[in-house]
Amino acid sequence: NYFWFEFQGFISIDCGAPNAYTHDKFNISFETDKGYIDSGENRQISAKLIDEQNYYHLYKNLRSFPNGMRNCYTLRPDKDKSNTYLIRASFWYGNYDEKNQIPIFDLYIDVNYWATIKTSKNVFQEIVYVPQRDYIQVCLINIGKGVPFISALELRTLDSSLYQIKSGFLGLVRRYDITRNSNFDIRYPDDVYDRIWQRRTINSFMLNPGNGTSAFELSKNNDAYKVPGEVLLTAETANNGPLFFPSNNSMNRWIGYFHFAETQSLLRGQQREFTISTSDGQFKETVRLEYLKPVTVISTPVTGSMINFSFQAQSGHPSPIINALEIFLIQELPNVPTALDDGMVKLRSFNYGEITRITGNFGTEIGEGGYGKVYLGTLENGTKVAVKILSKKSWQGDREFQAEEKHLLIVHHGNLVSLHGYCDHSENKALVYEYMANGNLQQHLHGDKPVLTWKQRLHIIVDVAKGLEYLHNRCDPPIIHRDLKATNILLNEKMQAKISDFGLSRTFTAETDAHVSTRAVGTPGYLDPEYHSTASLNKKSDVFSLGITLLELITGHPAMMMKPEGNVNILNWANSLIESKNLQKIMDPKLKGEFDRESAWKAIRVAESCTKPTGDQRPDLDHVLADLKDCLKTAPEPEKSPEDGKQNQKI
User: Fold this and answer.
1) Known catalytic residue at 106
2) Which parts of this chain are annotated as the region Disordered (predicted)?
């Protein structure tokens, strides 16, 4: 079945939808966001507007991104890189937040600018794109003018012989089915590639199909572009003046795809033959039509402040016609996605005066580390941020500052802190992050923050494992954090955990790579014991640090415990208790018995596997993450907080 075969090249996401479904008109199966992005919030347009867009079911839901500057969907099509894809992103603000303030934000394809989104209507942006790697990222970029959002994201696999691109990508400007019929646009299943054909008239000289001409006959004889027979069935005569397309930049390059089909059985000896050209001579081509045989004419790239295409019949031939057309803007790809040092987006650059202003002259200190102090700040649009100031006396210094800026620029995951911008003026350096309202994990385990429930602790360690798994397995090349610990795990207002502090992180080009350091890195208690003999850190070093963090969550003890006889490593302390199977003494007393025995033992076994003495004994992070998810699934929701003093899930 041809339609079934083409359907396998579809990725269809109804962003923000609570459930997957099959669209009753298009017969396309739409998925939820799950598996494509980890950040963002599911929302729905205003109830006052829902009934206005029954046909456009995709615009009912949306996903908004109030946190982070860059949030990306990752698409993994069946075909390899160098295949040609149609990618369509749809948007309708629909006053979902009841603020009636239309946001403005940028849309990126991989590491390159695609479009700026600003509209109160339901619109879509569409491109024809050949990726440079085996996956594609569609990113929404916060430019400080409102919260980015998206309603739907669709990918369609095209035949690579179509829409051939020598450089850059093709941004759709117009795709018209020339007809007086103003009913709904045509797309899948009529169009096997699911292109959306908007029905338009150019002039009043419609050409009706001759007797016996059918959409089926046109589809059966179709060329490689497979324009639907329903689209080709109607046409207009095209000798009543040129087609004009204004350009806001005379340097822009445009390309036209003109689709023709003779739908009338002309008198014997008659045949349409005409030229398509621009008035300035940039393009000219002659086309000859045969009955029921579709033809596609592709222009050369043309430039100018006003693009026009004229149609002129050859002497003695019937008037020219046009059945359908597509106009694209050729957009460049200046950035290469596989190089970490290429800026993936242009971060906001703050001057020192702006840093002083947004922090209220450094009025509220919320943290301190090896770099210096961290202050609470507020951007012009009311967004709260954390501002890390590099101290002139910092023991870490410029290299770590630049490493953190570089890594935060390229990573984008719901369990990694995101970067809003930076200040790099002479001796005044700062990084501006998303604000994490509930502080760091150490404050909750060993400080004066509210006691975490057992379920919350499992949620936190799963979040951390998700972030690390992304760094190890979904960044190209992989990133090793090298300093995971409780103070570098931050919690937002929803108690979602995010990894921070990438100053010691390193990138690796091969699975077996390790980084040999000539100076001390990491933190005692969390540091891979192999480091002392090899001076190198790798993926399994992060696994060890994750295991120590899990032990902290289980026991409530810090990684290094102060004892009269000296510092004691939590691993050495816990091992003897684990061997004796004394669960009551292992678990954090602050839990007051409020935990599930089965999930507790599962978590302990995961911590044991992560903290084996050598890296080759430890599991990969994808296995660790699967096991931790199983722990979380096993643990029931507590009826009471541990602070209530009632034991509802005693061992």
Assistant:
1) no
2) 630-651
